[in-house]
Amino acid sequence: MPASSQAGQPIAKGERLFLANYFPWYDADGWDGCNLCDQPQQAYGSDDPAAIRRHVQQALDVELDGFTSQWLATGDRTDDNFAQLLEQSRGTGFRSTIVFSRHMLPDGHSQATIVEALRYVMTTYASHANFLNVHGQPVIFFTDVYRVPVQAGQSPQDAWNSIRSQVDPNRTALWIAEGLDASYLAVFDGLYVHKITHAAYPNDYAKSSRWASQVRAWAQRSGQPRIWVATISPGWDDTRAGCQPDLRVPTQPHCRDREDGAFYRATFASALASLPDWIWVHSFNEWVECSHIEPSAAYGDLYMQLTREFVQQFKNP
Q: Which of 127, 181, 194, 242 lies at a C-alpha separation of 20 to 30 Å from 221?
């Protein structure tokens, strides 16, 4: 895949993926939690294979290509439920991957631990028919890459380079990093942005083309193709999140009104203008940040229907 010769053009050639971020850690009796902004139309526990199968079918119904499922550690709930996600997708074209977060856990601050976890993911899942791959290359998303443990004299980029040299020395996979620092592209194969609306910058999503240009400029300087993954989101409200501990880095609570779908449309328009290689919905079912498109008590299936419209527009330009 040669790099584009024009700064305004997508760099990665091939499949135009439309993915949604997935959270596999809800309890069936936890839907009255103080940190949740809404409830699904049909309550579920994330460990229920029938619920996972329903989510896969709902995603297929709006033509999503797959989920990026939050993954914390080998053998924990997120691991078990990712295995179940792949199995419940079997026989369909739905392909999912993980959002690797092992380095964020209190006991995860060892590069050896991270190497072990990534080797497990590759060995256990990468060959599954429903694991996300592009042109035969397994895809893994990473979040909070700056939180990786570093050794003396290392930058986070150095740490990830050391990790990747042990896990994937021949670069047979595609590693996609969260963030806006293009220097990570020396190690990773693409960038995406997790949060596109902030208390200080409620319309941060409007910078999509600027973010894309940073990826493309790096690719052109290096002569190495890189992937730009544009983010869309229906809204945001994490003003209740502080009532329970979680893994997120504390930020100023923020509410961005959905405007009856207008905000979602605006984020998609901005993403599309950035000429993305892939599009990533944050999120299918993040109920703490209130960025969900899953059918809910408050919004019905409005955001699923809008998602179908966006997928069709992206796939058929």
A: 194
Domain count, the chain: 1
Domain that holds residue 197: 18-315
| Residue 181: closest CA among 157, 207, 208 | 157
| DSSP string of the chain, one letter each residue | -PPPSSTTS-SS-S---EEEEE-----TT-TT-TT-S--BSS---TT-HHHHHHHHHHHHHTT--EEEEEE-STTSHHHHHHHHHHHHHTTSS--BEEEE-GGGSTT---HHHHHHHHHHHHHHHTTSTTB-EETTEEEEEE--GGGS---TT--HHHHHHHHHHHH-TT--SEEEEESS-GGGGGT-SEEE-S----SS-TTGGGGHHHHHHHHHHHHHHHT---EEEEEE-S-EE-TTGGGS--SSPP----EE--GGGHHHHHHHHHHHHT--SEEEES-SS-TTTT---S-BTTTBTHHHHHHHHHHHHHH--
The model scores a pTM over 0.90: yes
| Residue 299 maps to a domain | yes
Q: Are strands 255-256 and 236-237 parallel, antiparallel or unpaired?
A: antiparallel
Question: What are the φ and ψ backbone dihedral angles of 27, each rounded to 5 degrees?
Answer: -100, 140
Q: Does 266 reside within a domain?
A: yes
- How open is the CA angle 230-236-238, to the nearest 5 degrees? 130
Instruction: Please tell me the distance from the alpha carbon of residue 228 to that of residue 205, in angstroms, as a whole number.
Output: 14
| Distant-in-sequence, close-in-space partners of 71: CB < 8 Å, separation ≥ 6 | 78, 79, 82, 98, 99, 100, 101, 102, 121
What CATH code is carried by the domain that includes residue 133? 3.20.20.80
- Please identify which residue in the block is written with the tokens 């290392």: 154
Q: How far apart are CA 190 and CA 12, in angstroms?
A: 9
Q: 14-63 pLDDT, tens per residue?
A: 789 999 999 999 999 999 999 999 999 999 999 999 999 999 999 999 99
